[in-house]
Amino acid sequence: MEHATDRFPSPDELASRLGLLDDRLRELSGGRTAMLPVTKAFGVDAVRAVLATGRTEVGENYAQELLGKHLDLVAEKESEAEGTVPSARWHMIGGVQRNKVRRLAGIVSLWQTVDRVDLVDELARRTPGARILVQVDPAGTPGKGGCPPADVEGLVLRAVDGGLEVAGLMTVGVIGDAEATGAAFRVVARLADDLGLVERSMGMSGDLESAIEHGSTMVRIGRALFGDRPC
Q1: How far apart are CA 26 and CA 197, in angstroms?
Q2: How far is residue 172's CA from residue 206's CA, in Å, rounded to a whole number?
Q3: Side-chain-facing half-sphere of 231: CA atoms under 13 Å
């Protein structure tokens, strides 16, 4: 996979884009919705550029990519004077296989795609007290992560009983179908309300307006910050 450094903006340009998006989110949400920069398919320099703006939260879709970037930053931090290289607080926003949990335990600060009992149990065993979001798939899209809405309450209770911190719910919109995406966001927001969960990670670059309209507290933004991903 290409990780060319010339495929994403300079630190100054990135800081400008982040600022403009922050302003837009404040205008649309009244300050309710935060932005999570996502560096999927871009190299560790993209993470460094985010950290250089004073932000620490970064989203990644793939376990191996997250781990590689984390290790690069750790190695750099160890080779520099103490405190000169900021640390990232990683959000795992892609599907997670059980056998990846052990390697990511202690590195991921928020697991956003917890969608089944065996993953809940593995997290409870490998990283007690981990902070998670339960991923919901209201549209029932084949091959897409997320549990059915009817399973959400049981999964949340299983996670809480296992000692995990359930911060909220997460969902992904339906590509190319704004109506179905809005309906999915409504279902997830209502579920979060019913369960008393604060965090609703809904929306990406292409559907953030709809997500905010339906109560998103976090939008996951990659393309609007970094441009099209490398092939």
Answers
A1: 21
A2: 11
A3: 0
Q: How many domains does the chain have?
A: 1
CA atoms within 13 A on the CB side of 170: 27
Q: Give which of 222, 214, 42 is closest to 136, Cα–Cα.
A: 214
pLDDT in tens, 75-120: 887 776 555 667 899 999 999 999 999 999 999 999 999 999 999 9
Q: Is residue 231 part of a domain?
A: no
> The sheet that has 89-92: what strands, in order across it?
34-37, 218-221, 199-202, 165-171, 131-135, 108-114, 89-92, 57-60
Query: Distance between CA 231 and CA 227 in Å, rounded?
Result: 12
CA distance 209 to 207: 6
Q: In the prediction, which pLDDT does 84 show?
A: 60
How far apart CA 90 and CA 148 sit, in angstroms, is 26
Of all residues in the chain, what percent are helix, strand and coil, respectively (each to 5)? 45, 20, 35
Task: Give the number of other Cβ atoms within 10 Å of residue 45's Cβ.
Answer: 18
CATH code: domain of residue 174: 3.20.20.10
Contact 165, 176 (CB under 8 A): no
What percent of the chain clears pLDDT 90, i.e. is strictly above it? 79
Domain that holds residue 218: 5-226
